[in-house]
Amino acid sequence: MFAIAGSITRSDAELVVELSQRNHQDAQADVLSAATYPFVFNANALASHMRCSKAEVTKLMKLFTIAMAGALMIPSLMPAKDVKAQVTLSPQQQAEKEVRHELLMLPFLSVFDDLSFAVDGNVVTLTGSVTRPVLRSSAANVVKQIEGVDQVNNNIEVLPLSPFDDRIRMATFRKIYGDNMLSTRYGFRANPPIRIIVKNGNIRLTGVVANTGDRNIAGIRAREVSGAFSVVNELQVSKD
Length: 240
Prior knowledge:
Elements: E1 3-7, H1 13-29, H2 43-50, H3 54-62, H4 65-70, H5 80-83, H6 91-104, E2 114-120, E3 123-130, H7 133-144, E4 151-154, E5 157-158, H8 163-177, H9 180-186, E6 194-199, E7 202-209, H10 212-223, E8 230-233, E9 236-237
Parallel strand pairs: 3-4, 3-5, 7-8, 7-9
Antiparallel strand pairs: 1-2, 2-3, 6-7
Protein backbone atom coordinates (compact mmCIF):
# COMPACT_ATOMS: atom_id res chain seq x y z
CA MET A 1 0.00 0.00 0.00
CA PHE A 2 1.06 3.59 -0.49
CA ALA A 3 -0.28 6.98 0.53
CA ILE A 4 -1.87 9.63 -1.60
CA ALA A 5 -2.20 13.09 -0.12
CA GLY A 6 -5.02 15.33 -1.25
CA SER A 7 -6.60 18.68 -0.53
CA ILE A 8 -10.01 19.87 -1.62
CA THR A 9 -8.56 23.29 -2.40
CA ARG A 10 -6.06 21.81 -4.89
CA SER A 11 -7.40 21.52 -8.41
CA ASP A 12 -6.64 18.72 -10.80
CA ALA A 13 -7.74 18.88 -14.43
CA GLU A 14 -10.90 16.91 -13.82
CA LEU A 15 -11.99 18.98 -10.82
CA VAL A 16 -11.32 22.26 -12.59
CA VAL A 17 -13.49 21.20 -15.51
CA GLU A 18 -16.27 19.91 -13.26
CA LEU A 19 -16.41 23.09 -11.19
CA SER A 20 -16.05 25.48 -14.11
CA GLN A 21 -18.84 23.77 -16.03
CA ARG A 22 -21.09 23.69 -12.97
CA ASN A 23 -20.43 27.39 -12.34
CA HIS A 24 -21.17 28.26 -15.95
CA GLN A 25 -24.40 26.27 -16.08
CA ASP A 26 -25.64 27.41 -12.68
CA ALA A 27 -24.76 31.02 -13.36
CA GLN A 28 -26.92 30.94 -16.46
CA ALA A 29 -29.87 29.83 -14.32
CA ASP A 30 -29.40 32.39 -11.57
CA VAL A 31 -26.18 34.29 -11.06
CA LEU A 32 -26.97 35.05 -7.41
CA SER A 33 -28.68 31.78 -6.55
CA ALA A 34 -27.85 30.35 -3.14
CA ALA A 35 -27.80 26.92 -4.73
CA THR A 36 -25.22 28.07 -7.26
CA TYR A 37 -22.76 29.35 -4.67
CA PRO A 38 -23.48 27.26 -1.56
CA PHE A 39 -20.11 27.80 0.06
CA VAL A 40 -19.71 31.58 -0.12
CA PHE A 41 -22.72 33.38 -1.50
CA ASN A 42 -25.59 32.05 0.61
CA ALA A 43 -26.38 35.17 2.66
CA ASN A 44 -28.53 33.44 5.27
CA ALA A 45 -26.08 30.63 5.91
CA LEU A 46 -23.05 32.92 6.00
CA ALA A 47 -24.78 35.43 8.27
CA SER A 48 -25.65 32.63 10.69
CA HIS A 49 -22.17 31.20 10.32
CA MET A 50 -20.51 34.53 11.16
CA ARG A 51 -23.13 35.60 13.70
CA CYS A 52 -23.68 38.92 11.94
CA SER A 53 -26.57 40.54 10.10
CA LYS A 54 -27.76 39.40 6.72
CA ALA A 55 -27.49 43.02 5.56
CA GLU A 56 -23.75 43.05 6.22
CA VAL A 57 -23.22 39.83 4.32
CA THR A 58 -25.38 41.09 1.46
CA LYS A 59 -23.12 44.12 1.12
CA LEU A 60 -20.16 41.79 0.72
CA MET A 61 -21.99 39.73 -1.86
CA LYS A 62 -22.44 42.84 -4.01
CA LEU A 63 -18.68 42.96 -4.44
CA PHE A 64 -18.98 39.84 -6.58
CA THR A 65 -21.98 40.75 -8.74
CA ILE A 66 -19.90 41.89 -11.68
CA ALA A 67 -17.45 39.02 -11.38
CA MET A 68 -20.19 36.42 -11.14
CA ALA A 69 -22.08 37.95 -14.03
CA GLY A 70 -18.89 37.73 -16.01
CA ALA A 71 -18.92 33.99 -15.46
CA LEU A 72 -21.74 33.79 -17.99
CA MET A 73 -19.32 34.77 -20.70
CA ILE A 74 -16.36 32.69 -19.59
CA PRO A 75 -16.07 29.49 -21.64
CA SER A 76 -14.91 26.22 -20.19
CA LEU A 77 -11.16 26.14 -19.63
CA MET A 78 -10.90 22.81 -21.44
CA PRO A 79 -12.54 21.47 -24.61
CA ALA A 80 -15.54 19.21 -24.24
CA LYS A 81 -13.67 16.35 -25.86
CA ASP A 82 -11.13 16.42 -23.01
CA VAL A 83 -13.91 16.20 -20.46
CA LYS A 84 -15.29 13.08 -22.10
CA ALA A 85 -11.92 11.38 -22.32
CA GLN A 86 -11.99 8.04 -20.58
CA VAL A 87 -9.42 7.75 -17.80
CA THR A 88 -8.73 4.52 -15.99
CA LEU A 89 -8.18 5.17 -12.29
CA SER A 90 -6.53 2.88 -9.80
CA PRO A 91 -8.54 1.98 -6.67
CA GLN A 92 -6.48 4.52 -4.73
CA GLN A 93 -7.10 7.26 -7.27
CA GLN A 94 -10.81 6.46 -7.38
CA ALA A 95 -11.01 6.68 -3.59
CA GLU A 96 -9.19 10.02 -3.63
CA LYS A 97 -11.58 11.37 -6.26
CA GLU A 98 -14.65 10.30 -4.27
CA VAL A 99 -13.33 11.65 -0.97
CA ARG A 100 -12.60 15.03 -2.57
CA HIS A 101 -16.06 15.14 -4.12
CA GLU A 102 -17.85 14.27 -0.87
CA LEU A 103 -15.94 16.88 1.11
CA LEU A 104 -16.67 19.56 -1.47
CA MET A 105 -20.38 18.81 -1.20
CA LEU A 106 -20.55 19.28 2.57
CA PRO A 107 -23.28 21.76 3.64
CA PHE A 108 -22.00 24.96 5.25
CA LEU A 109 -18.44 24.45 3.99
CA SER A 110 -17.21 28.00 3.47
CA VAL A 111 -14.21 30.09 2.56
CA PHE A 112 -13.35 30.11 6.28
CA ASP A 113 -12.83 26.33 6.39
CA ASP A 114 -9.97 24.24 5.05
CA LEU A 115 -10.14 20.46 4.67
CA SER A 116 -7.44 18.08 3.50
CA PHE A 117 -7.13 14.32 3.37
CA ALA A 118 -4.76 11.44 2.72
CA VAL A 119 -5.69 8.02 1.38
CA ASP A 120 -3.58 5.03 2.42
CA GLY A 121 -5.13 1.84 1.14
CA ASN A 122 -8.52 1.52 2.85
CA VAL A 123 -7.71 4.19 5.45
CA VAL A 124 -8.56 7.88 5.01
CA THR A 125 -7.06 10.52 7.29
CA LEU A 126 -8.84 13.88 7.47
CA THR A 127 -7.05 17.06 8.53
CA GLY A 128 -7.68 20.80 8.41
CA SER A 129 -9.56 23.47 10.33
CA VAL A 130 -13.28 24.25 10.41
CA THR A 131 -15.45 26.82 12.15
CA ARG A 132 -18.39 24.52 12.86
CA PRO A 133 -18.24 21.28 14.89
CA VAL A 134 -20.87 19.77 12.59
CA LEU A 135 -18.46 20.03 9.67
CA ARG A 136 -15.93 17.88 11.50
CA SER A 137 -18.42 15.12 12.19
CA SER A 138 -20.11 15.40 8.79
CA ALA A 139 -16.80 15.05 6.97
CA ALA A 140 -16.05 11.78 8.73
CA ASN A 141 -19.58 10.48 8.19
CA VAL A 142 -19.67 11.04 4.43
CA VAL A 143 -16.21 9.56 3.92
CA LYS A 144 -17.17 6.44 5.89
CA GLN A 145 -19.93 5.80 3.34
CA ILE A 146 -17.50 5.60 0.42
CA GLU A 147 -17.09 2.10 -0.94
CA GLY A 148 -13.72 0.63 -0.03
CA VAL A 149 -13.08 2.91 2.96
CA ASP A 150 -12.73 0.81 6.12
CA GLN A 151 -11.32 3.38 8.53
CA VAL A 152 -11.43 7.17 8.91
CA ASN A 153 -8.97 9.00 11.14
CA ASN A 154 -10.58 12.35 11.92
CA ASN A 155 -7.88 14.88 12.81
CA ILE A 156 -9.89 17.94 11.78
CA GLU A 157 -9.51 20.88 14.18
CA VAL A 158 -12.58 22.85 15.27
CA LEU A 159 -11.64 26.51 15.59
CA PRO A 160 -12.66 28.26 18.84
CA LEU A 161 -15.76 30.44 18.94
CA SER A 162 -14.65 34.05 19.03
CA PRO A 163 -16.41 37.29 18.01
CA PHE A 164 -12.95 38.80 17.61
CA ASP A 165 -11.92 36.08 15.16
CA ASP A 166 -15.23 36.49 13.33
CA ARG A 167 -14.47 40.17 12.82
CA ILE A 168 -11.00 39.33 11.50
CA ARG A 169 -12.51 36.76 9.13
CA MET A 170 -14.98 39.21 7.64
CA ALA A 171 -12.37 41.95 7.35
CA THR A 172 -9.95 39.60 5.59
CA PHE A 173 -12.71 38.40 3.30
CA ARG A 174 -13.45 42.01 2.29
CA LYS A 175 -9.80 42.76 1.64
CA ILE A 176 -9.03 39.68 -0.45
CA TYR A 177 -12.23 39.05 -2.36
CA GLY A 178 -12.90 42.78 -2.63
CA ASP A 179 -9.62 43.33 -4.45
CA ASN A 180 -10.29 44.14 -8.11
CA MET A 181 -7.84 41.62 -9.52
CA LEU A 182 -8.50 38.78 -7.06
CA SER A 183 -12.29 39.12 -7.18
CA THR A 184 -12.30 38.94 -10.97
CA ARG A 185 -10.14 35.83 -11.05
CA TYR A 186 -11.48 33.94 -8.03
CA GLY A 187 -14.62 35.64 -6.74
CA PHE A 188 -17.24 33.76 -8.78
CA ARG A 189 -16.01 30.23 -8.06
CA ALA A 190 -18.17 27.77 -6.16
CA ASN A 191 -15.06 26.39 -4.47
CA PRO A 192 -13.16 29.49 -3.31
CA PRO A 193 -9.46 28.80 -3.92
CA ILE A 194 -8.19 31.22 -1.27
CA ARG A 195 -9.18 29.93 2.16
CA ILE A 196 -9.10 32.26 5.16
CA ILE A 197 -8.34 30.47 8.43
CA VAL A 198 -8.38 32.61 11.58
CA LYS A 199 -7.45 31.41 15.05
CA ASN A 200 -6.91 33.69 18.05
CA GLY A 201 -6.45 36.71 15.80
CA ASN A 202 -3.89 35.03 13.56
CA ILE A 203 -4.62 34.70 9.83
CA ARG A 204 -3.53 31.76 7.72
CA LEU A 205 -4.16 31.69 3.98
CA THR A 206 -4.37 28.29 2.29
CA GLY A 207 -5.30 27.02 -1.14
CA VAL A 208 -4.02 27.36 -4.68
CA VAL A 209 -3.77 30.46 -6.90
CA ALA A 210 -2.83 30.90 -10.54
CA ASN A 211 0.46 32.74 -10.11
CA THR A 212 2.97 34.24 -7.68
CA GLY A 213 1.53 37.72 -8.17
CA ASP A 214 -1.90 36.64 -6.93
CA ARG A 215 -0.27 34.90 -3.97
CA ASN A 216 1.58 38.08 -3.03
CA ILE A 217 -1.47 40.30 -3.47
CA ALA A 218 -3.56 38.06 -1.21
CA GLY A 219 -0.86 38.22 1.45
CA ILE A 220 -0.64 41.99 1.20
CA ARG A 221 -4.41 42.38 1.51
CA ALA A 222 -4.50 40.12 4.56
CA ARG A 223 -1.77 42.16 6.23
CA GLU A 224 -3.92 45.26 5.80
CA VAL A 225 -6.52 43.87 8.21
CA SER A 226 -6.57 45.96 11.36
CA GLY A 227 -6.25 44.03 14.62
CA ALA A 228 -4.80 40.84 13.18
CA PHE A 229 -1.75 39.61 15.07
CA SER A 230 -0.02 37.77 12.23
CA VAL A 231 -0.46 36.52 8.68
CA VAL A 232 0.93 33.23 7.39
CA ASN A 233 0.67 32.89 3.63
CA GLU A 234 0.53 29.19 2.73
CA LEU A 235 -1.02 29.74 -0.70
CA GLN A 236 0.50 27.55 -3.38
CA VAL A 237 0.91 28.44 -7.03
CA SER A 238 -0.77 26.12 -9.51
CA LYS A 239 1.57 24.08 -11.68
CA ASP A 240 -0.95 23.92 -14.52
